[in-house]
Design brief:
Distance between the termini: 38 Å
Structural class: alpha+beta
Strand order of the largest sheet: 4-3-2-1-5-6
Largest sheet: 6 strands, mixed
Shape: globular
Radius of gyration: 24 Å
CATH superfamily of the largest domain: Creatinase/methionine aminopeptidase superfamily
Order of helices and strands: HEHEEHHEHEHEHHHEEEEEEHHHEEEEEH
CATH architecture of the largest domain: Alpha-Beta Complex
Strand content: 15-25%
Length: 428
């Protein structure tokens, strides 16, 4: 655990919120993520299951959380199951949670070893009428492997064919889409680390450095502050600006080019998401600055439009209207193109082909129903862009905001974004 200890009040309150959504006499089970094999005997570093962390603070492999508010015995209403530490694990893998450690982290009193799960689970299933089981229900997920959740669901259906099995994911998505004050504190820490990393870059970038050197400098700044890259970083110079998911990061940064950096930090499993586009030489060309300021105006208009009660799709359409106006000013679109556009495929998509933003939190592309209006506590990214392959550059700017009753709050307001300010810092 790289991050500082987190108040277990966060996880206790999240579990209480979940129990209010569960049907009577039903239990819920959340499994840790699988360790993913690579080649030979190697595995990827395990990423904690976001739902398990949300409810318990536990980041250890093979862990299981069971919640059963109507259990006959009070001690069985929250149970955490963990791998039992032993000398072999200590030598080969290092620290594993003790029961007392897990109690402090999660706020759960009843902690059992994983070997006890089958008997305990059977006993509680026989007390229950229904079970909520978890799965990855993110709309854009394309999971081809058989996950731990899938295996567990199949086993439960086989062993308890007369039980009513229900979907846990929609309930967790409902809870996770709006952030509590404690969650916002962790998000702000991730953003603070990101801020320091970006400020470091403004003084580091110059003609001749490579994209991977920029990545390395950011990694150093993030790691020494207990963070890590929230997602594979995009460090894209020149024409690479126009590749939306450019991850090679292997080219030199040349005089006159723009450098697009989509490379934020995570902290305690909560993620920032930042994009800035800066001039490698420390000065924007006249054309580059015009495009940059156009994107900045769309960003600010879109931030202002993220209000309580608005639907995501309407917010997106508003940004496309703003973008059409800016592209007309830049001479990239003609009035006739806008007038004749397909409302479902607006003219701006030639230069602005992606979405405006997405929920943000424990997952970078966080869960939440896009058909539900924005509510207070909704955290969103705002990331318009203009990409002009024919001119050899693109510009994307991205801030993270939280929707409140009093209007949107920019969580990244301290990160330099004005073109003149960026030039000033880079030329000190």
């Amino acid at each position: 655990m790289r991050h500082k200890p987190i108040k277990n009040k966060l996880f206790s309150e999240n579990r209480k919120r979940l129990t209010t959504l569960l049907a009577p006499k039903s239990l819920a089970v959340i499994n840790a993520n699988d360790l993913l094999p690579v080649n030979a005997d190697a595995t990827l570093v395990m990423h904690p299951n976001s739902d398990l962390f949300f409810l318990s603070g536990i980041e250890q492999e093979e862990s299981i959380l069971l919640i059963f508010q109507d259990a006959a015995e009070e001690k069985n209403r929250e149970i955490l199951f963990l791998r039992e530490p032993n000398e072999h694990l200590k030598i080969w893998e290092g620290y594993k949670h003790t029961k007392e450690d897990a109690r402090k982290i999660s706020g759960i009193k009843n902690v059992q070893w994983l070997s006890e799960f089958p008997v305990t689970f059977r006993s509680l299933m026989l007390e229950s009428d229904a079970a909520y089981l978890n799965s990855n229900e993110y709309k854009r997920a394309n999971v081809e492997m058989e996950t731990r959740d899938v295996r567990f669901i199949r086993q439960c259906q086989q062993d308890y064919p007369l039980h009513d099995f229900r979907r846990l994911a929609p309930l967790l998505h409902q809870l996770r889409v709006t952030k509590t004050d404690l969650e916002l504190e962790l998000l702000k820490e991730a953003i603070d680390i990101t801020t320091k990393g970006f400020n470091r870059m403004l003084r580091f970038v110059k003609p001749g450095v490579t994209e991977y050197e920029v990545e390395a400098e950011l990694a150093k700044e993030y790691i020494k502050r207990r963070g890590k890259f929230a997602y594979p970083p995009i460090i894209a110079a020149g024409k690479n600006n126009c590749v939306l998911h450019y991850w090679q990061n292997d080219q030199p940064c040349k005089k006159g080019q723009l450098l697009l950096m989509d490379a934020a930090s995570g902290y305690a499993n909560y993620n920032a998401d930042l994009t800035r586009t800066i001039p490698v030489s420390g000065r924007f060309s006249r054309r580059q600055k015009k495009v940059y300021n156009a994107v900045l105006r769309v960003l600010r208009a879109s931030i202002a439009g993220a209000t309580v009660g608005k639907l995501h799709r309407d917010w997106q359409k508003e940004s496309q209207v703003h973008m059409n106006e800016e592209l007309l000013k830049l001479g990239l679109l003609k009035p006739s193109q806008v007038k004749k556009q397909d409302p479902e495929n607006p003219a701006c998509r030639k230069y602005y082909m992606h979405g405006l933003g997405h929920p943000l939190g424990l997952d970078v592309h966080d869960v939440g129903d896009m058909n539900v209006p924005f509510a207070p506590g909704t955290v969103l990214t705002v990331e318009p862009g203009i990409y002009i392959p024919d001119e050899g550059f693109g510009v994307r700017l991205e801030d993270d905001i939280v929707v409140t009753e009093n209007g949107p709050v920019n969580l990244m307001e301290k990160i330099p974004i004005e073109a003149d300010e960026i030039e000033s810092i880079m030329n000190r």
